[in-house]
Design brief:
Blueprint: H1 3-9, H2 24-34, E1 46-50, H3 54-62, H4 69-72, E2 75-82, H5 99-113, H6 117-141, E3 145-149, H7 154-160, E4 167-176, H8 191-194
Antiparallel strand pairs: 1-2, 2-4, 3-4
Helix pairs in contact: 1-6, 2-6
The chain binds flavin mononucleotide (FMN).
Length: 200
């Protein structure tokens, strides 16, 4: 599927066919595409929990006010991020570069994030947002549907997945084949309301 068709046909799908799985090859292809998403300093804050256990799904559904797509979709991914990834052995983010590049980038990275807790958290959310959009578009390109979700009790889900300290849950994404199409688009703001030239 062409990229613009994927962008235009991706919708937040709430009802899934429970007979159509995501093949393992497709799942891996989607996730490997996700790993190519851009991140500041190549920090790759994202961490993914693939929820395969039906009982764990049901518990997460309870923490998400019963939203049905959580148990209906073939796959459920809790998209997390490591807020401290900037300081966790950052040399590996530049492993394939020369020692000169590493010697330049690593101190830059450290002085950029050191002591800036809001920025560290913002960055984890930015990176996971990038990952989410790649996931949803890659899935669409292979004929699958998704729904990004933040409608759940984050503390409860954190406890269910044993979220480590210094991490956050960015969102949950369901992945599978739609059983019902989305409603017509609710109303996109016109370009001239959101696009400005040079300043607000
Ligand atoms: C961060 C985020 C959280 C969302 N949370 C939920 C959710 O908990 N439940 C739900 O049904 N849809 C959720 N949505 C889907 C939005 O309602 C949907 O993306 C929006 O209405 C636009 O529709 P579209 O994605 O089909 O274009 C979420 C979307 C985003 C990006």
């Amino acid at each position: 599927m062409d990229l613009f068709t994927a962008i235009e046909s991706r919708r937040a799908i709430k009802h899934y066919s429970n007979t159509q799985a995501v093949s393992e090859a497709d799942f891996e292809r989607i996730m490997n595409a996700v790993l190519l998403s851009p991140t500041s300093y190549n920090i790759q804050h994202w961490r993914f929990i693939r929820v395969t256990d039906p009982q764990q799904r049901a518990r997460i559904q309870d923490a998400a006010w019963g939203q049905t797509q959580i148990t209906e979709a073939a796959e459920l991914i809790v998209l997390c991020a490591d807020i401290q990834a900037w300081s966790d052995n950052p040399l590996r983010y530049w492993a394939n570069t020369s020692s000169e590049v590493q010697a330049m980038m690593l101190p830059m990275l450290e002085s950029f994030y050191q002591g800036r807790e809001q920025l560290q958290r913002d960055e984890a959310l930015r990176s996971s947002g990038m990952a989410a959009q790649t996931l949803m578009l890659a899935a669409k390109a292979l004929g699958y549907d998704t729904c990004p979700m933040i409608g759940f009790d984050s503390e409860q889900v954190a406890s269910l997945i044993n979220l480590p300290p210094g991490h956050l849950i960015s969102m949950i994404i369901t992945l599978g084949k739609a059983a019902r199409p989305a409603n017509p688009r609710a109303g996109q703001l016109p370009l001239n309301e959101v696009l400005m030239e040079n300043s607000f």
